[in-house]
Write a structure and sequence with these properties.
The structure holds two protein chains of two kinds. Chain A is an alpha/beta fold. Chain A is built from five helices and seven strands. Chain A has one domain: Glutaredoxin. The mean pLDDT of chain A is about 90. Chain B folds into two domains: about 100 residues, Helicase, Ruva Protein, domain 3 (Orthogonal Bundle), CATH 1.10.8.640; about 45 residues, no CATH class. Chain B has five helices and no strands. Classes of the chains: A alpha/beta, B mainly alpha.
């Protein structure tokens, strides 16, 4: 009996380790952002629709907003566009776009054709602001509270379901405001 | 015996070939003017993960984001930052996941401790088996102890 104890113990230990591992990675592709709970990175970037003006994170202080990272080269961005339009239409929260590694002409054309859900689109040509936000793939969407703290990040296509389940309750609950 | 030696030589040759092939495929043509900085640049870019490809370092990846991150490393180096400061800069944005070499922190203690613990455990098992065998040989006529 005793001779089975050690292998059994090792097996049980291994099972626990693997179970924890599997449980903690429901989707291996998603990496928790270290930005959650931290102040949103500052930026001051040209406005896509009016390059003479700038979009500044400081001006967004005191209100909830979504920062949506997109590019015309990104297929999933195309897929989530309808959802963004419907969120914008709902007027519960404003969306700021971060146009990442794109060209102005393509980006403007995209918004003209598909509709523009964004209050402003900040133009990040060299990807520096995206790096400050820890962006590694588009689309990514950040929820920032009135104190300028990042409270939630969604990686990949944003749907109205996700918006209703994850974002709206946080805004309504006034989390961290 | 001869076949084994030939196999060893072939394996060695293939390994060297793979290393050469690997270095010749470097995606990053940038050379910093200061050789010391260049050496640190090469080392650092090899230990930072390409977040889009995940199993490549930013030194090995041709994707745009890896290029942007290499530029960041260069700029931070040229600004006089230390290797640790650059690692901190990266992990503040992308999390510890971007570091191929996990930090020695309490949170990662299990990661560093487990192999050592397993080694000790293995050694204990080996010692036990050896003792049992020795006892078996010594007490040749005694019945096998099934404890």
């Amino acid at each position: 009996m005793n001779r089975f104890l050690l292998p059994l113990g090792v097996f049980a230990l291994l099972a626990v380790v693997l179970a924890v591992g599997i449980r903690h990675s429901p989707d291996k592709g998603l990496i928790r952002s270290p930005l959650i709970g931290k102040p949103a990175p500052q930026f001051s970037l040209p406005d896509l629709q009016d390059p003479a003006r700038t979009v500044q994170s400081a001006a967004l202080q005191g209100r909830w907003y979504l920062l949506n990272v997109w590019g015309t080269w990104c297929a999933a961005c195309r897929a989530e566009h309808e959802a963004l339009l419907s969120i914008a239409h709902g007027r519960q929260i404003g969306i700021i776009g971060l146009n990442w590694r794109d060209t102005d002409a393509d980006a403007r054309q995209w918004l003209k054709q598909l509709g523009d859900p964004y209050e402003h689109v900040a133009v990040d040509r060299d990807g520096r602001t995206a790096i400050d936000w820890g962006v590694y793939g588009a689309p990514e969407t950040f929820l920032v509270n009135p104190r300028g703290i990042v409270v939630y990040k969604h990686i990949g296509e944003l749907t109205t379901q996700t918006f209703n389940a994850e974002i709206l309750p946080r805004v309504r609950g006034g989390q961290g405001s | 015996m001869l076949a084994q030696a030939t196999f060893k030589r072939a394996a060695c040759f293939v390994t060297i070939l793979m290393i050469c092939w690997h270095t010749s495929l470097a995606v990053d043509p940038v050379e910093l003017s200061d050789p010391a900085l260049q050496a640190r640049y090469v080392a650092l870019t090899h230990e930072l993960r390409c977040m889009q490809c995940q199993n490549e370092s930013i030194a090995d990846s041709p994707v745009d984001l890896a290029g942007d991150l290499r530029r960041q490393v260069r700029e931070l180096l040229q600004a006089g930052k230390s290797d640790d400061e650059i690692r901190d800069w990266m992990s503040a944005r992308y999390g510890d996941f971007i570091l191929f070499r996990p930090r020695h922190s309490w949170r990662n203690a299990w990661l560093w401790g487990t192999p050592a613990a397993l080694l000790v455990l293995g050694a204990l098992v080996v010692v036990r088996i050896i003792r049992q065998r020795a006892a078996l040989v010594a007490g040749d006529t005694a019945p096998v102890d099934e404890s």
